[in-house]
Amino acid sequence: MKIQDPDAELIREFQAGSVEAFNDLVRRHQAAVCRMAYRVIGQQEESRDIAQEVFIKAHQMLPKWRFKAKFFTWLYQTTWNLARNWRRKHSRLDYYEYIGEHKELQTHPEAQVGMHYQEQKAMIKRVLGQLPKRQHQVVLLRIYERLSVEDTAAVMQCRPGTVKALLNQAMKRLSQIVKKEQTYDEMSA
Amino acid sequence: MKCRHKRNEWIGYLLGELSSKQQMRMESHLKECMACQKVTEELKSTLTVLNRVTPPPQDFSGGDVFVYEIHHKMERREIVSSRSRRFRQAAAGLTIVLLMAVMVIKLIHQKPDSPVVQPGSVSHLVKAEPMSSRLQTPTIRLRTSVKPVSMMSGPSNVSTMTQPKFPRKPRINLHIKTISGIQKS
């Protein structure tokens, strides 16, 4: 039995004139889109705005949707592009040192452990921000959003092999940094 | 000795993306291979650190309020865009009217090049210069009727008395004949 894509069903209903179908589509994906935007820009309010912008674009685009791709790949791609544009515009803002981060650290139970956790977290965040664009994207999609290699490739508009290679490069780089930090901690202990 | 298992496979293994059969095969290999153990340990620690970083707040999108806000934004934009569309249309209409008015005024006030008037000649056709090379206005034919000074100023003896030092310029009556296909008398 062929499993119907629920997004495709909702899009068909929306194309037939149902506003509620569009609302359902938004409800289905709003958390993922907000999360993705938040991962890129690191600000709660702004990421909400970006996510709404993505859905407004979807509202304009869906009447012409031809069901050749999965809807969520389009969503992730647009979210990534809008969030990256936002970050480029606000490049002066040090995005990993925003107010929310400090609030979160103060209230986080692991913040009691000491400075090590905070430093490591800030360091990884900084490194993630410094990764090349494609490597950063692949880490967000594969590690955080847990998309499959094929879906990630569809979002990034590349081949699955490229996704694997990019993730490999990103993980190598991150592993090196983590290892360096661990040896530094051992030496200082 | 280098192992045949690639780093990517171990990432898939740690992310739990493999089938149960593959997972078991990888596990049994891991018990024997030191190189792979090293790689997985390294990847594990990196993934642990990565998973600790920036956990996004739980469902901060705001449920139905989020949907309502989207519709509100779209309505607001629709109003703004319809206003700006109307404004653009009005501006375009006004521009066209102004351009036409300027063209008509220019055509009315345009003087032909001073024609070489032979005394005694009555009328001839003058081909005027186009108003502007950009606008490419069509050729305007102007019919001029020129009367000699002596004919305009009455009898010859009076004219010789009142005749100024320099000869008067001949009076030219302009009759626009054709302008871009529109007949004008």
What does this structure look like?
The complex is a heterodimer of chains A (189) and B (185). By secondary structure, chain A is mainly α. Chain A has a domain at 1-93: Rna Polymerase Sigma Factor, Chain: A. In chain A, 76% of the residues lie in helices and 0% in strands. Residues 95-113 of chain A have low confidence and may be disordered. Chain B is mainly α. Among the domains of chain B are: 7-52, no CATH class; 120-183, no CATH class. Helices cover 52% and strands 11% of the residues of chain B. Chain B is built from six helices and five strands; from the N terminus they run H-H-H-H-E-E-H-H-E-E-E. A three-stranded antiparallel sheet of chain B has the order 1-2-3, with no helix packed on it. Chain B has a two-stranded antiparallel ribbon with strand order 4-5. In chain B, strand 4 (178-179) and strand 5 (182-183) form a beta hairpin. In chain B, helix 1 (7-14) crosses helix 3 (34-52). The radius of gyration of chain B is 45 Å and the shape is elongated. The A-B interface holds A 23, 26-27, 30-31, 33-35, 38-39, 42, 44, 48, 51-52, 55-56, 59, 101, 110, 117, 120-121, 124-125, 128, 139, 142-144, 146, 148, 164, 167-168, 171-172, 174-175, 178-179, 182 and B 7-8, 11, 15, 17, 42-43, 45-47, 49-54, 56-57, 59-64, 66-67, 69-70, 73-74, 77.
